[in-house]
# Entry
Amino acid sequence: TIESNEKVRLLEDGVEMATVMTINTMGETQTVETYVTDGVMYTTDGTNKVKAPYTALDDALGLTDLTSTTSSPLYAIQSISKTEADGVTTYTLTMSGNLLTSMTETVMGMMGQGQDLSGMTMSDVTMSVSFENDVMTGLTTTMNMSMTAEGQTVDCVIFLDAVINAVGDDVVIEFPADLD
# Structure
């Protein structure tokens, strides 16, 4: 399991972020902290520290070409529904796993990653986004994925459940004093 607490602030000149992720695998627990400020990403696992330029946002925007229908994530949407209950509006969308697999292969290729992803398949992805008083309060995503390599297959279920408890100026990020 992976549990993560993430704070993100979008600024006019970039992004600030603090993420503390706890990973539990086969009885072992590891904590990874990632901080982004002033265009630099700092990552530590308690033993090793890495400092690198943070270009992920620019890289993602550079890969986005919405002029082509087939390259747009909107093309992958199969259905959208809306429900309302107790003052909460939830939009649920389903995206094509086949198209997402293809898009992943394309993005990896554009990033210069030469991995053969022919053994990877994704099921349809279901995502729900909840709003209360026009403020996003939650995000849930479910996806099944299968990877086959050298005759071995690994099946996994990816489940993301995000609770949004602050937005805008209410997001306060405190950075450790020893970022270096």
